[in-house]
Amino acid sequence: MAFVGIRGATLLKDAVELQAHLATLLRLENVGLLLGAGASVAAGGKTMWSLWTDFVDTAPDEAQWMVDRGFVEPVAVAEPAERIVPNVERLGDALEIARVEWRRQNSVDLPALEHARAQLARAVVRAAQLQPAWWTSPGGAEADAEQLRHHRTILQKLVAARQPGQAAPWVFTTNYDLAIEWAAESIDLQVVNGFLGVHGRRFSPQSFDLGFRNTQARGEARFGVYNIYLAKLHGSLSWREDADQVYEVQAPLAGLQIQEFLDEVGKTELGLMVMPRAAKYMQTIGYVLGELFRRFSEFLSRPQASLLVCGYGFGDEHINRLLRSALLNPTLQLVVYFPGFSGDALDPALPPALRKLLSLRNPRVTVVGGGAEAHLDKLAAQLPDPLLYDDDMRKLEKALREPLATAAGAVAPEFEDLA
Question: What pLDDT does 145 receive?
């Protein structure tokens, strides 16, 4: 599928025009990145479709049990061509709520529920594990790990494009994996993820208000930043709840627990945070995730902000609502990479939330599609290399825009009557 992109109601001619737009966005005061499951596929992760297919294939009896007990619709276990994947996180929460209630009732179905819940958790862990060797290595993923090449490129371009006095970029993700942490650490980039401490890293949200700087740098030498802010909106494989606190566990230790959970079929508890839990939700996990969503909402309301979205399937209504309401910020720029977008803003196959964004015809919303043309590697390649001086940026923008002057008035066919 060829490149396709639209900004508001105006078609983008090609990737060069998109790159000129991205070059402008990276210069805004606040820059953020939202990554979904699709962004981790190159590193060994799975999309939600692949995750659910893995669960159905490896635990068909448990999948059918969920259908029989009404946790999922029959179409969830239908043939692949007709299968509709349920919201896995919502399903996990439903199973946890039922587990609490069935335990209170001493239900005879409790063992079957716990086993089915554990099998689903194993599918989630396999999807988020990425490369098992990274969990056992003291250094995690090395700097030459090909699977994280695009993550490293994006992070390097984002931090190097920051001007003196500008804040470090934010990375928001719905993934449980450690792709961002490993990519950043492999290039010696500091990650501020809300946890403080050396041996006992406890969640302390005030850390998001701190940053890193070179105390010896002056003037243009202060170009760029030394850290990113990372908010894992759905939790992480490296988090553990203990005594009403949430801690971050070192990857080698977490890796041992993960492998033990995957190998021992009779084990029903991982011991790490994989999906939101109903039990004690408000006291611990609800507080952590609520704080992270608050930071996400706060970022979207900042002046002169841009958010790049890649790998996100628009399956989380909470995030969808935040993205829609964020457009009330008149200076927010939103760029969405969505492989399923073919140029038709009214395509019924698109997620309803994305169709809603397209229907607004907002010139501050850019959607890029075209199959593989909207994958993470394309975003990494299309983000401009950092330039040190404003004159260099103006020259780049002029060179990119001049050949596109004749195409500036192209309007998407479905919007011709409305333009």
Answer: 82
